[in-house]
Write a structure and sequence with these properties.
It is a single chain. The protein starts with 15 loop residues before the first helix and ends in a 5-residue tail after the last helix. The chain is built from 4 helices and no strands. The protein is an all-alpha fold.
Length: about 120
């Protein structure tokens, strides 16, 4: 097996020995790197989920967000509205254990909110 003759000019860039050496952490490495992107508006642990909504519900959420922004100048996202509704429901004394369908839930919630339509 023939071996390559040594190169006369030095290589440009890092060699395998430079790349694969163990990293020694210095005191400057203890500072957390700057995170990219938008700052989160919430501080507790969260999980991203997928929820299927009807087009009319998306239109309602978007219009609500646009109306809030027009009235107050504050941007409210769909997720903000949904989280607020869930938090309000969880803090209420409403018992939903007897409901059997989405229609039952809607009837109980609409009655509690004061706009019941049968």
């Amino acid at each position: 097996m023939a071996t390559r003759p040594p190169r006369k000019s030095p290589r440009i860039g890092k060699s395998g020995q430079d790349i694969f050496i163990p990293r020694v952490e210095s005191s400057s490495d203890t500072v957390a790197p700057k995170k990219r992107g938008r700052r989160p508006s919430h501080t507790e642990h969260w999980t991203k989920v997928t929820v299927v909504l009807f087009d009319r519900q998306i239109v309602f959420l978007d219009r609500l967000g646009a109306d809030i922004r027009a009235a107050s100048g504050v941007a409210i996202s769909r997720a903000h509205v949904i989280r607020a509704l869930i938090d309000a429901l969880s803090e209420s004394d409403l018992d939903l254990t007897g409901t059997r369908s989405e229609a039952d839930l809607k009837a109980v919630l609409s009655a509690r909110l004061g706009r019941y339509r049968a």
